[in-house]
Amino acid sequence: MKELQHSGSGPEKQERPHHTGGPLKVPKSARALKAGLCVAVVLCLVTSVLHVMLVFLHVAPANTVSKRYGPQITAWVYPFFEQNWRLFAPNPDSANRQILARTARTGSDGSVRVSSWFDLTAVDRSAVEHHVFPSHTAQNMLRRAWVGYVDSNGGDDKATSERAVMMREYLSNIAADRVAAHKGGAFDFIQLRVLTLPIAAPGPAVGNRPPKPVENRLLPWWKVTRHAE
After folding, report:
1. What angle do CA 107, 174, 119 make, to 5 degrees?
2. How far apart are CA 157 and CA 222, in angstroms?
3. Residue 55 and residue 75: Cα distance in Å, rounded?
4. Whole-angstrom Cα distance, residue 204 to residue 212?
5. Residues forming a β-bridge with 198
6. Coil, strand, or helix at residue 108?
7. 16, 113, 132, 194: most buried by Cβ count inside 10 Å?
8. CB 104 within 8 A of CB 188
9. Residue 220, exposed/middle/buried by CB under 10 A (0-12, 13-18, 19+)?
C-alpha cells in the first residue's frame, strides 16, 4: 500500500508496511508469567480470607465452629498470630505479681550452691517509674511471659504441648538473662517464685469480706544454658 507525501519538490511515494489483519501472537513465556501471577494473586486472597476467619474464630466467644475446629484454629494462630485480647469484653489484670528468681550452680566436687532471691519485678518497676518513655521490655516482657506460661501450663507446671514447652523456655530464658545481667556469675539452674497480690475493689468491702490471701507459687528448678562468669 502506498500513500502520497508532499514535499518541496512535489508529491513523493512512500511505502507503508503491509498489515495482514491477523491476531498478534503472545509469546509462551509471557502467557506462563501471566498465568503464574493470576495463581499467586488467587492464593494470596484465599490465604488472607482464611487467616481473617481463623483469627476471628479464635478471639470470638466459643461457638459450634470454633469448638469443632479448635485444634486447627490453635495450630494456625499459635505461636505467630497470638491474640491477647477479647473481642467483646476486656480482661484487665486483677492482681499485682512479684516475680523473683534464684540460681543454682553445680561445683566440680558435686556440691550445689544456691543464690539468694533476686526481685525481677522490682528491676522492671524501677526502669518504668520516673521514666518519660519507658521501654516495652520493662513494661510487658516479663509479665506477658508469665501470663503465657500460666495459660499453657496451668497450675501443675507440667508441659503437655509444644506451646507449653516453648513458653516455659521463654520464661526461663528471660529470667536467666535478667539475673546474669544484674548479678553476674555462672549458674546451671534457675527457679522462680511468684507472689500474687489481689487488687482490692475500690470503696468499702462488700459485706466486710476478708481480703484474699497472697498466693505464693514456687516453680520447679529449670535447667538453663550455663552463663559465664
Report:
1. 80
2. 11
3. 11
4. 15
5. 95
6. coil
7. 194
8. yes
9. exposed
The three grid cell numbers given for residue 43, joined into one nine-digit string: 492464593
Q: Is residue 8 over pLDDT 60?
A: no
Q: Residue count of the chain, please give it.
A: 229
- Pairwise CA distance, residues 183 & 175, whole Å: 12
Q: Identify the burial level of 50 via C-beta atoms within 10 angstroms of its C-beta, where 0-12 means exposed, 13-18 middle and 19 or more buried.
A: exposed
pLDDT tens digits along 94-127: 788 899 999 999 888 888 899 999 999 999 988 8
Identify the three-state secondary structure at position 60: coil
Which residue is listed with cell 499459635? 78
Task: Give the separation between CA 108 and CA 115, rounded to whole angstroms.
Answer: 17
Cell numbers found for residue 154: 496451668
What is the model's pLDDT at position 190? 94
Grid coordinates representing 198 are: 489481689
Torsion of CA 42, 47, 53, 55, to 10 degrees: -160
Crossing angle of the two packed helices 70-77 and 28-59, in degrees rounded to 10? 110
Alpha-carbon radius of gyration of the chain: 33
Are 118 and 102 a contacting pair, CB within 8 Å? yes
Furthest CA-CA distance within the chain: 116
